[in-house]
Amino acid sequence: MTFQREELSDLENRAYRRSLDLLADHARKVQDAIRELVFMVEEFVNGKDIQRHYERITKLEEEADEIKIELIDMLTKSAPGFLYREDFLRLIFKVEKIIEVAHTISRFVLKLSANKIKFEPCFGKALAELAAESLSAYEKLRDCIMALAMNPMNALKLVGEVHTAESNFDLSQQDLDLRIITEVQDPSLVLMCRDLISNLEYMVDAMEDASDDVRVLALHRVL
After folding, report:
1. Based on the number of CB atoms within 10 Å of its own CB, is 223 exposed (0-12), middle (13-18) or buried (19 or more)?
2. How many whole angstroms separate alpha carbon 96 and alpha carbon 106?
3. In total, how many domains does the chain have?
4. What is the pTM of this model?
5. Using one digit for the tens of pLDDT, what is the confidence trace for 62-108?
6. CATH number at residue 166
7. 218 by DSSP, 3-state: which?
8. CA dihedral in degrees (171, 148, 89, 97; nearest 10)?
9. Residue 129 lies in domain
């Protein structure tokens, strides 16, 4: 009986470590996609070709999905009794939502570019800066996920930084939203700008939600 319990513990530990590795790989793919989105928005507002950025984001989403499927398969088949299985699955699904939104935004920006839509330089610059803020927020979430393996206590601390980044993003988003409503004269441009901003906000909100699941996993290791 003792041997069986030790064997189960070893299996769970290996499942935990492998799950962390897959989460880290997945988090890096998502970070690459958001970074590509930032480049895409910057080049869009500068009137440059952005097709290659869209294609790169599409490929990264596919690669991230493959990692997600591998994690699901591993937890379902290799570790069906793993205590923290649901927590890992919940986290990767929420991080997956982030890259899905990034892909949606990139598709919208590509359509704007194809239809020769242009924003005033000051608003284009502000949109690019807001996109860069979303990347900064995600980098804090990625740091949280990476810290799970080596320092769960630090992961808990970093969760707070994700929440702070989300609050700071909200302030910037609200300021820009108000400027667009009050200063942009073309109603169609107002709608397009606000739709883009709203999706960026949704993406950052998803980061905050995911950080709460990182907290749950970290607490398992420190309590």
Report:
1. exposed
2. 15
3. 1
4. 0.91
5. 999 999 999 998 888 766 666 778 899 999 999 999 999 999 999 99
6. 1.20.58.220
7. helix
8. 30
9. 2-222
